[in-house]
Amino acid sequence: MFSRHYLIAFVALQVVALINLVPSWLIGRVVDGISEKTLDTQMMVLYVVGIIVSGVVMYCLRFVWQSKLYGASIAITRVIRSELFQKFLLLSPVFYASRSTGELMAHATNDLNAVEETMGVGIMTLVDSFIAGITIILGMIFIVSGELTAVALMPFPLLVLMTRRYGIKLHKAFGKAQSAFSDLTEETRETVSGIRAVRSHGIGQRQQKRFVKVLDDTVEANISVAKVDAAFAPTIQLVYGLSFVISLVYGAWLIEQGSITVGIFTTFTLYLGQLLGPFMQFGWQFNVFQRGDTSWRRLERLFSENTEVVEGDKTLPNDGNACMSFDIQSFTYKQANRKALDRVTFDLPSGGLVGITGPTGSGKSTLLHLALRQFKLDKPSSILLSGIPTDSLTFDSLRSKMAWVPQKPHLFSGSIAENIALAKPCAQQSEIEHVAEMAGIRAEIVAMPEGFNTLLREGGTNLSGGQKQRLTLARALLSGADILLLDDPFSALDMKTEVLVRQNLKIHYPHKTILLVTQRLTNLIEADHILVLNDGQVAERGSHHELVNIQGWYSQVYQRQSQLGQSINVAVIKGTVVKKNGIKVAGDE
């Protein structure tokens, strides 16, 4: 489809270039008629009508080729944008850990805009200047004089040499400018997203200095581009001026010799004047193509990034249960100097609850990431879902079975109801309110002025940490997934709300298979099986009572948490205020 649009545009361009020769030729005839005193009213009217008709036809054809060319460039850019977004969805967390958001945003905005300009305006000016230039030169040769044309074009090889030199400089300068723009975008994004931290720590002046430095680097890089770009037009005008002077001298000599007439020479000078436009366009489009080429090379590097996690082709049977089996012999993050997981094996039965706990950095969240196939798991390690290796399943089949509640909840722009219904956009209001009730947040939402229609600010900054966690849990419950991957989902909740949510999960969702990562060991009392990880290895395993009796890490932490919980409960019952390290914790009165 795109090639057809470009073909129509190129044909229209060629016809315009041919018709564009007519007015200058008619003017030459008028000049010869005046000098030879053979011009009458009828001929003058005919010439004027010919010029007007030529102008109208060129106007219509220019509308055709510009609309076709621009339409094709916009459509092509739409495809590239779509493919880029699809690439973003497929790339693993390893890629995003090594790229800043500002850099990726620069790819999706500045680089794509440069490519779109190249595919539209760039190709338009290239083809227009080439077709118009060649057509005008051919007209100068066959309509006027090949000898005079050869003399007039003598300075133009100099233009080719200078253009090549400027092109090399422009390519390097624009590459630095695009890189500087990426840094500027990231600096702006980081400061704006962390504005609360900037203000609370009083580092506004520091951030201002950092921004000004990055801004100065960006301006300096773009000034370097502008300096090279500014040299194009004067160079073209100098070469063209030299060509015009040579043409005037040699043309006057040819007229004196009687080789050409004044009218023919007038036509030649008009053609030479028309030739300035294509050459000026040539210089400008050279700049556009250099920008587009640099941006496209940056995009190509992004498109060539290997997709670490490859989608399988199998699907789960409709009657498949929600059991999982983990056999992780070894897993190491890229560029890490130690294993994240080492010999971790266990089964997660359908409808069961397996708890994962352990010190910070022991690999707990990594287990959930591997279950979701966010990272590649090398052989002989494997994770089975309903007896099928997860790396052989399609992403849709795998992730339709799982709902993930991350440690740091992410909320999207929109209302609270839209965020809860993220995985099920067609959900009824009653369904949304039910899962909100199960997550222990419905009453708080109803108390808001707009209720479930309350709009969330970026990242949900108008909600507390506990509210964000419960919204994300409600989203997971509404998804209908059989397996819940819960990554410390109660860390920001008070004990009363935590107990309520746990009871709701136990009573209303006994069929759900749950893999729970938590540091609050009271959440694991009723777990079917518990793993205590330490440095990526299973340090302890068993039921809650078995681990308490072992007197290991689990037992020690549980006893400390139980003592702290009893102290808080006593304080709440008595209505007193407990002081801990100078911080007051008020009880109910």
Structure report:
By secondary structure, the protein is an alpha/beta fold. 62% of the residues lie in helices and 11% in strands. It has 20 helices and 14 strands. The protein has helices at residues 2-19, 21-35, 41-90, 93-97, 101-144, 146-152, 156-193, 195-200, 204-230, 232-257, 262-303, 364-371, 395-399, 416-420, 429-438, 442-446, 465-478, 495-508, 544-550, 553-574, and strands at residues 324-331, 341-348, 353-357, 382-385, 388-389, 402-405, 414-415, 455-456, 483-487, 513-517, 529-534, 537-542, 577-580, 583-586. The strands form 4 sheets. Strands 6-9-10-3-11-12 form a 6-stranded mixed beta sheet, with helices on both faces. Strands 2-1-4-5 form a 4-stranded antiparallel beta sheet, with helices on one face. The chain is elongated.
Question: How are the secondary structure elements laid out?
Answer:
Layout: H1 2-19, H2 21-35, H3 41-90, H4 93-97, H5 101-144, H6 146-152, H7 156-193, H8 195-200, H9 204-230, H10 232-257, H11 262-303, E1 324-331, E2 341-348, E3 353-357, H12 364-371, E4 382-385, E5 388-389, H13 395-399, E6 402-405, E7 414-415, H14 416-420, H15 429-438, H16 442-446, E8 455-456, H17 465-478, E9 483-487, H18 495-508, E10 513-517, E11 529-534, E12 537-542, H19 544-550, H20 553-574, E13 577-580, E14 583-586
Parallel strand pairs: 3-10, 3-11, 6-9, 9-10
Antiparallel strand pairs: 1-2, 1-4, 4-5, 7-8, 11-12, 13-14
Helix pairs in contact: 1-3, 1-5, 2-3, 2-11, 3-5, 5-6, 5-7, 5-11, 6-10, 7-9, 7-10, 7-11, 10-11, 15-17, 19-20
